[in-house]
Specification:
With about 425 residues, this protein is α+β, with helices and mostly antiparallel strands. It has eight helices and 26 strands. It catalyses: adenylyl-molybdopterin + molybdate = Mo-molybdopterin + AMP + H(+).
């Protein structure tokens, strides 16, 4: 059951094998995102202490004002501005002391209240004078004669007003979100259950770190790079390891994974070679499309379904596998997880690079930011081969070189830091 029919999917997939040329990146990403539906994960209650990186399933609104009352932004004295003018520079008496957490008495006319940062401003006071701008003698304080109304007072609801939507559904929760939600007294959050991602490798040539690699074997780096990327996204990893290079073992592994995972990911094994069994196994169990993408590195990509479970087949070359995961698989995973923001943020920076002959593929250069003549410039790694994994370990992100573009040193290009892909 191969080809590009819509069986089991929301929308039909285009089989790029039947189309001439290479598929543009934007078209491929749009088709991938159109083929999955977001916000379908079960919702569970998660305590604030365990919610970092989780995706919020509902809008959360404030049930109170923050701050709940006018409070002082400084250590000093709560005053009535009119009393300062009337005193004409003469000392005023301290009538009460207001630390944070105390409900103050109304301010007596013609007096001041000693007040501390975060403490509630007493009724009748309309400004706070910083203690540095005063002279105290016992219970008497000499004040400036003129200060602005409302000086150094944080007004009730200044940060959050009762009823405000504070954090929106689809937000991938960061420390700042947790702090804001704590400030309105919410302890448990409705979050989508983490996406369950099954990862499997195929190839008898793959040895595991810690083993002795036999003749013709290589160590399986993709398993660990992709494991780290999946876990970094806060998703549940189902690590199936390396499966035996037979059709029967591949079918059994894919069937088992599809039964307990929300997404299947493989690296390598989807070409037309006699020992590449993943493509045939996915076709037997569901559907698959093989695309040749106009990106470099990472031209080959497979997408389909095993039963009803989406499947992504990444390239086998280590840099290609990482890149395709980050720029193609990651947005799909974010949508499946229910996240609102699917795409990384980028900035434009000058690059120390020259490409005098335009290429047909969109290129992702592994780069690092360096300072040259007082400005940040993108410096590419010397060897951009798809097999040079050390280039990714050295780099800070990707410089995106558009297809059919010539580049001269100093030209501005899009830079995607790795931090935006985590």
């Amino acid at each position: 059951m191969s080809g590009c029919g819509g069986k089991g999917g929301d929308k039909p997939l285009t089989d790029c094998c039947s189309q001439p040329g290479l598929m543009p990146f934007e078209q491929a990403l749009a088709q991938l995102l159109d083929s999955v539906q977001g916000g379908q994960q079960p919702v569970e209650k998660v305590h604030l202490t365990a919610a970092l990186g989780r995706v919020l399933a509902e809008d959360l609104c404030a049930g109170l004002d923050v701050p709940p009352a006018d409070n002082s932004a400084m250590d000093g004295y709560a005053v009535r501005v009119a009393d300062l003018a009337a005193a004409a520079g003469k000392p005023l008496t301290i009538s009460q002391r207001i630390p944070a957490g105390v409900d103050p008495e109304p301010l007596q006319p013609g007096t001041v209240a000693r007040i501390f940062t975060g403490a509630s401003v007493p009724e009748g006071a309309d400004a706070v004078v910083m203690q540095e701008n005063t002279e105290r003698d016992g219970e008497q304080v000499k004040m400036p004669t003129e200060i602005p109304l409302g000086d150094h007072i944080r007004r009730r609801g200044q940060d959050i007003a009762n009823g405000d939507a504070v954090v929106k559904a689809g937000t991938r929760l960061q420390p700042q979100h947790l702090g804001v939600l704590a400030s309105i007294g919410i302890a448990e959050l409705p979050c989508y259950r983490p996406l369950r991602v099954a990862l499997l490798s195929s190839g008898d040539e793959l040895a595991q770190p810690g083993e002795v690699a036999g003749p013709g074997q290589i160590y399986n780096s993709n398993r660990y790079s992709l494991t780290g990327l999946i876990q970094q996204l806060g998703m549940e990893l189902i690590d199936l390891g390396t499966i035996e290079d037979t059709r029967a073992a591949t079918i059994e592994a894919l069937q088992g994974a599809a039964a307990k995972a929300d997404l299947l990911i493989t690296s390598g094994g989807v070409s037309v070679g006699e020992e590449d069994h993943i493509k045939a196994a996915v076709e037997q169990l569901g559907e698959i499309s093989l695309w040749k993408l106009a990106i470099k590195p990472g031209k080959p990509l497979a997408f389909g379904r095993v039963g009803q479970t989406p499947f992504i087949g990444l390239p086998g070359n280590p840099v290609s596998a990482m890149l395709c995961f980050q720029v193609l698989a990651r947005p799909v995973m974010m949508k499946l997880q229910g996240a609102g923001e699917l795409h990384p943020k980028s900035v434009m920076l000058p690059i120390d690079y020259q490409r005098s002959k335009a290429q047909k593929r969109r290129e992702y250069l592994r780069v690092r930011r360096v300072e040259q003549d007082g400005q940040l410039v993108l410096k590419p790694y010397t060897n951009q081969s798809s097999g040079v994994l050390t280039s990714v370990a050295w780099a800070e992100g990707y410089a995106v070189i558009p297809a059919d573009a010539q580049i001269a040193p100093g030209d501005l290009v899009e830079f995607i830091p790795f931090s935006e892909l985590a």
